[in-house]
Write a structure and sequence with these properties.
This protein is α+β, with helices and mostly antiparallel strands. Helices cover 36% and strands 7% of the residues. Strands 1, 2, 3, 4, 5 and 6 form a six-stranded antiparallel sheet that branches.
């Protein structure tokens, strides 16, 4: 349980002895008095603004009773999205002679806030709560069948065994009742009675020690497991329930006696590429990503330090809050102390804030800005570290080597990070953004029904996915071979900038895919310095002629509704542009070896 946690958030104190004493009472309270649910109204007393935002959020409205709809016209207007008149003849109710439509009189609860679909729960004569066999498709404004079983009613439609764990707060397994409908405060932060009691005792003026005690009595929901409780697919240990009923914030969701996720070779839930086949599998996908291991990976480095947390751990979110609210100060506080309580990598809360209700996906910032806030050459690191943004956009990396703006970045309505790394995957319940952060490669998706790869959506002139994969393989092999040759020929007298150029290419990680022209320019400069090539002597006219001959016009389908921050213009010089284009010409010449008809992209 949450309140079993005895590790307190360490705040800088003038007296180390006082700090230890201050942490003791909360630990004792946690062990002596298990917390109970108090309800959102109690939370509202102190967190008025946050509670007000939550009230109209997708989380809170994921289950709304008919009584609440009748009492609050504003909520009813927001929640009731379906056209009930259009459901005529779609549901055969028990004991009735013929199928008919549904009306609000049949609805005990709305199920889902309606971002994609909205279903409805009815109460049968025996008081069983049953999900109706049709749902409203919000995007297409039409009713669709909800085929959970061959017939309705059926146990597959029972609300309390299939839905209640993720649509209510404080479900009691013995009484089959719950504290609140919807995902309310205590669903994510844990039962709040101890937190509220400490706050009441502290009064309006809270000392540092009281704040440490207060914050220790609640879960801050930075652990991905808190979100994973519902955004996951698997079964309870006995295989009976599709949600982790025994889990509470602060527990180990993946404990043997808590919940079992579906393995990656389960074709019912996964595409063979490792992407989710069904919705609500964000946690399953995240577990397979390097985000989940970001902190552990960083800690393996001898250079690991507090500065690494800004990108490698969600603990930075909590640290930022402490500084903003002046509960801690940068010159007194060691950020590594936060890892005692928040030992997590890049979790859901790193990018999402469920209290940011104005954004449909609760993002902390615009998507591209979020990605490049970490995937860039940070000034916190020594040397070139992870220059994805610089490579993709075409920004300076190595002194003396002018960058080349990326064709993906500069293309009108071109792709950005989300296009390839969080592409929309067509699941069995509509499109969902993948959270594996791994692009669906053309070769892997070529023979998979219903799966679109990340490249040929835009590169529509390519005849087959295999051709596109051949180009990708050619690009990456070209870069890998050149990197290996440079490494082999480097010596003690090699200029420092050559190593920097190599670090830039390796640190980008895409092996040329993000921006081959820039990657080639970096490698060509290093190769020239080491005498591996003599350099380019092509004139601008020569290059223009070759480009027209080798790189014909291609049809590229724009990506809908792109989002990115304002671009910074890249600096180029004619000589390096020539080197970059010459490299492209070589690459595309190699590509023609793999594809038919000399079609190039």
């Amino acid at each position: 349980m949450l309140m079993g946690m005895s590790v307190m958030l360490s705040l800088a104190q003038d007296d180390e002895g006082d700090e230890e004493a201050d942490a003791t009472p909360a630990a004792e309270v946690a062990e002596a008095e298990p917390a109970t649910y108090e309800g959102t109204r109690q939370c509202r007393d102190c967190h008025r603004s946050t509670a007000s935002d939550l009230e109209t959020s997708y989380h809170a409205l994921t289950l709304v009773s008919s009584a609440d709809l009748e009492d609050d016209e504003d909520i009813a207007a927001q929640v009731l999205l379906a056209d009930f008149e259009a459901s005529e003849g779609m549901v055969q109710f028990p004991g009735e002679d013929e199928a008919r439509g549904i009306s609000l009189r049949d609805v005990a609860f709305t199920l889902g806030a309606g971002r994609h679909y909205q279903a409805f729960v009815t109460e049968l004569d025996d008081e069983t709560l049953m999900v109706l066999p049709i749902q409203w498709d919000v995007i297409n404004s039409e009713w669709k069948n909800l085929p959970l079983a061959e017939e309705w009613p059926d146990p597959a439609y029972e609300f309390t065994t299939n839905c209640v764990g993720c649509h209510t707060t404080g479900f009691d397994t013995s009484e089959l009742t719950w504290e609140e409908t919807g995902v309310q405060c205590e669903a994510c932060h844990g039962p709040g009675s101890n937190h509220i009691e400490i706050a009441d005792d502290a009064g309006s003026s809270i000392s540092d020690s009281e704040y440490a005690e207060l914050s220790g009595a609640i879960n801050f929901a930075l652990d991905a497991q808190v979100c994973g409780r519902c955004h996951v697919r698997g079964t309870s240990p006995d295989g009976e329930l599709p949600y982790p009923l025994a889990y509470h914030p602060g527990d180990d969701l993946l404990a043997e006696d808590t919940f079992h996720t579906f393995p990656g070779d389960d074709a019912t839930h996964w595409f063979p590429t490792g992407h989710a086949l069904l919705p609500n599998m964000q946690f399953n996908e995240w577990l397979t990503s390097s985000h989940s291991t970001a902190l552990a990976d960083a800690q393996e480095s001898d250079a690991f330090g507090a500065a690494c947390l800004s990108c490698h751990s969600v603990a930075q979110v909590r640290i930022n809050y402490l500084f903003e609210e002046e509960w801690a100060f940068e010159d007194e506080y060691d950020p590594l102390d936060a890892l005692d309580r928040f030992p997590f990598g890049v979790t859901c809360a790193s990018c999402h804030n469920p209290h940011e209700v104005e954004a449909a996906t609760y993002l902390r910032d615009e998507p591209y800005a979020l990605c490049v806030s970490c995937h860039y050459d940070s000034e916190d690191t020594e040397g070139i570290h992870h220059p994805v943004q610089e490579t993709f956009e075409g920004l300076p990396l190595v002194e003396g080597i002018d960058p080349v703006e990326g064709v993906h970045f500069s293309a009108e309505d071109g792709p950005d990070c989300l296009t390839c790394h969080m592409q929309l995957v067509e699941t069995k319940s509509g499109p969902r953004s993948s959270h594996t952060f791994a692009p669906i490669m053309p070769g892997a998706a070529a023979d998979v029904e219903g799966l679109q790869d990340a490249c040929t959506t835009c590169h529509t002139d390519v005849e087959t996915p295999e051709q596109m994969q051949a180009l990708i393989d050619s690009v990456q092999q070209n870069v890998a071979d050149r990197v290996a040759a440079i490494q082999e020929n480097m010596g003690d007298d090699t200029p420092e900038w050559v190593g920097q150029a190599l670090a830039a290419v390796e640190g980008d990680g895409s092996q040329g895919i993000h921006n081959y022209a820039y990657t080639s320019a970096l490698l060509t400069s290093a190769e020239t310095e080491l005498g591996l090539i003599s350099g380019s002597s092509l004139s601008n006219d020569d290059v223009s002629m070759l480009v027209d001959e080798v790189l014909p016009d291609v049809e590229v389908t724009p990506v809908p509704a792109p989002t990115r921050v304002p671009r910074v213009g890249a600096l180029t010089t004619p000589s390096l542009v020539i080197l970059g284009i010459a490299g492209l010409i070589i690459l595309f010449a190699a590509y023609t070896f793999f594809v038919r008809g000399n079609r190039n992209v």
